[in-house]
Amino acid sequence: MKVGIIGCGAIAHIITNFAVDGKLGVDLEFFFDRDIERAENLALQVDGTVVIEVKDMLDKVDLVIEAASPQAVKDVVPEVLQKGKDVLIMSIGALMDFELKNKLENIAAENGAKIYAPSGAIVGLDGIKAASIGKIKEASLITRKPPRSLGISADGETILYEGKASKAVKEFPTNINVAAALSIACGKDVDVKIIADPNVNRNVHEVHVIGDSGEFKTITKNVRCSINPKTSVLAAYSAIKLLNSLNENLIVGT
Ligand SMILES: NC(=O)c1ccc[n+]([C@@H]2O[C@H](COP(=O)([O-])OP(=O)(O)OC[C@H]3O[C@@H](n4cnc5c(N)ncnc54)[C@H](O)[C@@H]3O)[C@@H](O)[C@H]2O)c1
């Protein structure tokens, strides 16, 4: 399976490293970034090709990885799906715009393409998706990050946001991915609290779900990417595992 990537930052670096080691399960061949130097640096590692526009890779790939920004999901993903190519979306926060989500799902259905959104920076989405078959009564997320990961400085614990996931999208577009993944998996607008905490050195996500199948609590303490401390290594690994699983005959977990 031939793959191209849009956005050559922290997540793309980790994915490319796995490609170099032959552990991606797909052939990563095309690279696009609005900063062409970034695309060139990654392409060099796998003898890949840099494209000047996304459309230049579309006839040659089976799947495109979006690892750029919510805006890129809006601007570029529709044309990828229109070509009947599958897409793996990392900026899942973009899908909290339900008009955009419906539009992408419709284009995918009309053109026989699939949209994959890996579990990203949290654990437990498999169980929560299973629970959503029944009734989910409550779902909440507390995200705690070192202030630097949130692009601010703070001496003490500071609550930056408390409210529904759908409203956090505008204020924290690059920190909303976990809340979005949870909300979409639950089919519910999750209650979110975002805290800048100088006492933690990891990005920590506490999820609490109560449904008719039971109660779940998960805590994920993520190692941050060295290139971009806002991003957790686990998010990149979840994309790599998903790519690996495209060739597997046994799929474990929902
Ligand atoms: N699903 C999750 O749990 C999860 C976790 C972490 C990050 N993310 C999201 O994944 C995306 C990538 O994360 P990252 O840490 O690699 O980011 P990054 O900032 O390190 O890299 C993003 C790269 O994309 C490029 N880019 C941005 N917008 C673009 C556009 N419209 N067209 C072309 N190139 C563009 C930038 O130049 C940069 O090189 C972000 O949107 C981030 O919010 C999701």
Helix-strand blueprint:
Layout (H helix, E strand, L loop, with lengths): L1 E5 L3 H11 L6 E6 L3 H11 L2 E2 L4 H4 L4 E4 L3 H13 L3 E4 L8 H14 L3 E2 L8 H7 L4 E10 L12 E7 H7 L5 H10 L4 E6 L6 E9 L2 E9 L10 H13 L9
Parallel strand pairs: 1-2, 1-4, 2-3, 4-5, 5-6, 7-9
Antiparallel strand pairs: 7-10, 8-9, 10-11
Helix pairs in contact: 1-2, 1-9, 4-5, 6-8
What does this structure look like?
The chain is of the alpha/beta class and 254 residues long. The chain has two domains: 2-120 and 235-245, NAD(P)-binding Rossmann-like Domain (Rossmann fold); 125-228, Dihydrodipicolinate Reductase, domain 2, CATH 3.30.360.10. The protein has nine helices and eleven strands. It has helices spanning 10-20, 36-46, 55-58, 70-82, 98-111, 125-131, 165-171, 177-186, 233-245, and strands at 2-6, 27-32, 49-50, 63-66, 86-89, 115-116, 136-145, 158-164, 191-196, 203-211, 214-222. The strands form two sheets. The protein has a six-stranded parallel beta sheet with strand order 3-2-1-4-5-6, sandwiched between helices. Strands 8-9-7-10-11 form a five-stranded mixed beta sheet, covered by helices on one side. Helix 1 links the parallel strand 1 and strand 2. Helix 1 (10-20) runs parallel beside helix 2 (36-46) and helix 1 (10-20) crosses helix 9. The longest helix has 14 residues, at 98-111. The chain is globular. The two termini are 23 Å apart. The mean pLDDT is 95. The site of nicotinamide-adenine-dinucleotide (NAD) has 31 residues, from helix 1, helix 4 and helix 8.
